[in-house]
Write a structure and sequence with these properties.
Blueprint lengths: L4 E13 L10 E16 L4 E6 L4 E6 H7 L16 H12 L11 H15 L4 E7 L9 H15 L18 H19 L5 H8 L2 E5 L2 E5 L5 E7 L6 H14 L1 H23 L5 H25 L4 H11 L5 E4 L6 E5 L6 H13 L3 E7 L5 E3 L7
Parallel strand pairs: 3-5
Antiparallel strand pairs: 1-2, 1-12, 2-5, 2-6, 3-4, 6-7, 8-10, 8-11, 9-10
Bound molecules: (3R)-3-hydroxy-3-methyl-5-(phosphonooxy)pentanoic acid.
(3R)-3-hydroxy-3-methyl-5-(phosphonooxy)pentanoic acid binds next to helix 7.
Subcellular location: Cytoplasm
Catalytic activity: (R)-mevalonate + ATP = (R)-5-phosphomevalonate + ADP + H(+)
GO molecular function: ATP binding; metal ion binding; mevalonate kinase activity
């Protein structure tokens, strides 16, 4: 009896408060969203490793012998020990996808393919398999699509290893134990490093454990929220460069250190207030509404401070103005300069209003999704072919 096939799903994330200021030592709060990336692995006979990116209609395949030549050290892989990929190995891995003719427009995928090849080989060695990826998350919009990919992939690879004690005869979605999730999170972080260089770790952590987390100077606290919050996420579809935006905030901080220190301190207080509010219980409609009012107010205050930092954008301002017409409050999420905007949808808000605001935003060329936030993290499902 062996584990041969598995499917996992891992959620994307939003930053509810504290982006940018977190880089300068303030607290940030992030939450999972119920849009996921899924990875299926099927070990198969033959001598090929295949990667299918369904949404992009891309397929890669490598002869196992070729992978062994390029990444030679994994005859006996050790999935229980997360390993960073050295820069020399990363360079050799590049030769594996250079031969695959990735279309020019999709070249940003190359680092994701490298992360795949590293995580697969370092945990499973040279087993032939077909790995299929599907995602509900837009790429490069600040919703944590790369982290969700790394978490779903690491989760699937570890679920098929001896590191996870799962009952694979069980039907439906399963969750891993905390120690197993810790291991998935560490491997996913190694994948994120290949994709992003120096990630903070917030995205893979939210995607692994789900729910909400507070993050300050690299220290992560998992929050216990008991009221579900619903957000409208508007993708402005304006591309942004996180690195340049972060650098812009640092330059402004050098020019006006005293003023910017006050801005960062204010953001820190907003994030802490938000964490407290999220964790208070609300047992009836009045209490829920009060809680949502405060969350909205803090989001609006944070947006004002993000404007102070210079990371808003004309497209973001259009979303803010449009939602405010319906008395709904919004803030950018992630790096800003375009990307996605969050609008809290209060529990008692009529669906007619939601439909109207979505129609107006979409008529501006934006793309809207409604998302539940603070839901499950990584989940695993063994299909019928999981046992032989
Ligand atoms: O857009 P994202 O999800 O990559 O968010 C970037 C968040 C920043 O605070 C701007 C940068 C960071 O590393 O925390």
């Amino acid at each position: 009896m062996g584990r041969m096939a598995v499917t996992t799903r891992a959620p994307g994330k939003i930053i509810l408060a504290g982006e940018h200021a977190v880089v300068h030592g303030s607290t940030a709060v992030a939450a999972s969203i119920n849009l996921c990336t899924s990875v299926s692995i099927l070990f198969s006979p033959g001598d090929m490793l295949k990667l299918e990116l369904k949404d992009m209609e891309l397929e890669f395949s490598w002869p196992i012998g070729k992978i062994k030549e390029v990444i030679p050290d994994f005859d006996t892989p050790s999935p229980s020990t997360p390993l960073p990929c050295s820069s020399e190995t990363l360079k050799s891995i590049a030769s594996l996808y250079e031969e695959q003719n990735i279309p020019e427009a999709k070249i940003t995928l190359a680092s994701g393919v490298s992360a795949f090849l590293w995580l697969y080989t370092a945990t499973q060695g040279y087993k032939p398999a077909t790995v299929t990826v599907t995602s509900e998350l837009p790429l490069g919009a600040g919703l944590g699509s790369s982290a969700a990919f790394c978490v779903a992939l690491s989760g699937a690879l570890l679920a098929l290893s001896e590191c996870c004690e799962l009952d694979y005869s069980q039907q439906g979605w399963l969750t891993l134990r905390n120690s197993e999730l810790d291991l998935v999170n560490k491997w996913a972080f190694e994948g994120e490093k290949i994709i992003h260089g120096r990630p903070s770790g917030i995205d893979n952590t939210v995607s692994t454990y789900g729910n909400m987390i507070q993050f300050k100077s690299g220290e992560i606290t998992r929050l216990k929220s008991n009221t579900p919050l619903k957000m409208l996420i508007t993708n402005t579809k304006v591309g942004r460069n996180t690195k340049a935006l972060v650098a812009g905030v640092s330059e402004r901080t050098l020019r006006y250190p005293e003023a910017m220190t006050c801005v960062f301190k204010a953001v820190d207080s907003i994030s802490k207030e938000l964490s407290n509010i999220i964790q208070t219980s609300a047992s009836n409609d009045i209490a829920v509404t009060e809680k949502e009012d405060k969350v909205e107010e803090l989001m609006e205050m944070n947006q004002g401070l993000l404007q102070c930092m210079g990371v808003s954008h004309a497209s973001i301002e259009t979303v803010l103005r449009t939602t405010l017409k319906y008395k709904l409050r919004s803030k950018l999420t992630g790096a800003g300069g375009g990307g996605c905007v969050l609008t809290l949808l209060p529990t008692l808000l009529s669906s007619i209003v939601v439909d109207k605001v979505v129609a107006e935003l979409e008529s501006c060329g934006f793309q809207c999704f409604t998302a539940g936030i603070g839901g499950n993290g990584l989940e695993v499902c063994f299909s019928d072919n999981a046992q032989i």
